[in-house]
Specification:
By secondary structure, the protein is of the alpha/beta class. It has 2 domains: 4-211, DHBP synthase, CATH 3.90.870.10; 232-332, 3-Layer(aba) Sandwich (Rossmann fold), CATH 3.40.50. The chain has 11 helices and 17 strands. The strands form 3 sheets. Strands 2, 3, 4, 5, 6, 7, 8, 10, 11 and 12 form a 10-stranded mixed sheet that branches. A 5-stranded parallel sheet has the order 15-14-16-13-17, with helices on both faces. The protein has a two-stranded parallel ribbon with strand order 1-9. α1 crosses α5 (126-134). The protein is globular and about 60 Å long.
Length: 336
């Protein structure tokens, strides 16, 4: 089996036909491409885990066409919690916000890795929305890549990752945000950010007290090592030129926030600039694609410039640290 990339209305119809038969297909979202299957069909959900090589202990996000479907997959602890969720849904759905709620008993345990919470969101991508409107069931859809590897932000990325494992990829263009959704648990009036993303703590603070997690919660994409390239990645939190010059490795690649000095460029086998203007949202949209290209380059090691941890910069650095987890001296500074 080799995945075909399809587009337009015929592509939507074909994707819907596969999903109704219990198959899995790749669909575009505004964050990253997702590998989708019927959330109420355990065999379809098992195919998602199989195609990704994902451990059955890692839960999946359930995608809904609109917030009115929440009662099909989730329960609420109180009327006040429901009211707060409705406020969040009105403010951020459709969009890159995932909420952790109590799991509905009808939802297969495989979706939530056996825990009693479920992650739900409503994507803003029009093609994913159109697929959901033609179905009568929600979709489980983690990122469409091999487990722990770089998330895909284009249809071609998906084919490179899973081309031999799935039948169909729905072409939806490059992803707007390029960064997985913000995951938030709604607990007792508090909003606990379990995974940072495009929706920032500053935005969420208008709808409740933003608090650190009160306990360790198993959520999608929460393992220490995740979103990882094959090459070693080191985060540079001091002068880039000093580290490239001092590196014993040949052929360094650089993932830069802004355009570096010519002297730095001359030392690099490969270079990717996330945002020439220093725009963090642009950097987020380009992050995974740039990291993937550097991983495919002829370089021996990837140096990544640390970004300001404000707004969506918090999410970018979260993914960068997970991508570097396990690399020797994953984060380095000449001043340490």
């Amino acid at each position: 089996m080799s995945a075909r990339i399809v587009s337009g209305g015929e592509g939507v119809d074909e994707a819907v036909a596969f999903l109704r038969r219990g198959e899995v297909v790749a669909l575009p979202t505004e964050t990253v491409y997702g590998l989708a299957g019927d959330a109420f069909n355990p065999l379809a959900v098992a195919r998602i885990f199989e195609a990704k090589g994902r451990p059955l202990t890692d839960p999946l996000i359930v995608h809904l066409p609109e917030s009115g479907w929440l009662d099909r997959v989730a329960l609420f602890d109180s009327a006040s919690q429901r009211a707060q969720v409705d406020q969040l849904a009105a403010a951020f759905w459709p969009g890159p916000l995932t909420l952790i709620l109590k799991k509905h008993p009808d939802l297969p345990d495989l979706v939530t890795a056996g825990i009693q919470d479920v992650a739900v969101r409503v994507t803003a991508h029009p093609l994913f929305q159109e697929v959901l409107r033609q179905l009568n069931f929600p979709l489980s859809a983690p990122s469409a890549n091999r487990f722990g590897k770089i998330s895909p932000t284009s249809a071609e990325d998906v084919r490179n990752e899973l081309g031999g494992m799935i039948p169909l990829i729905l072409e939806g263009g490059p992803c707007e945000h390029g960064m997985e959704s913000t995951i938030v648990a709604v607990k007792g009036g508090d909003l606990e950010i379990l995974r940072p993303g495009p929706i920032t703590s500053e935005q969420l603070s208008e709808y409740g007290h933003v608090a650190p997690p009160s306990e360790v919660v198993k959520t999608p994409g929460s393992l220490p090592s995740h979103y990882a390239p094959k090459k070693e990645l080191q985060i540079i939190e001091s002068d880039i030129m000093d580290w490239i010059s001092a590196s014993a490795r040949k052929n360094p690649a650089l993932l830069a926030f802004r355009s570096p000095m010519p002297a730095v460029i001359e030392q690099c086998t490969a270079l990717e600039v996330l945002s020439c203007s220093g725009d963090l949202r642009e950097a987020a949209a380009h992050f995974y694609g740039a990291l993937r290209r550097l991983d495919q380059s002829k370089s021996d090691i990837i140096f990544a410039e640390a970004l300001p941890e404000v707004g969506i910069g918090v999410a970018i650095m979260d993914r960068m640290r997970r991508a570097s987890h396990g690399s020797r001296h994953a984060s380095v500074s000449l001043h340490e």
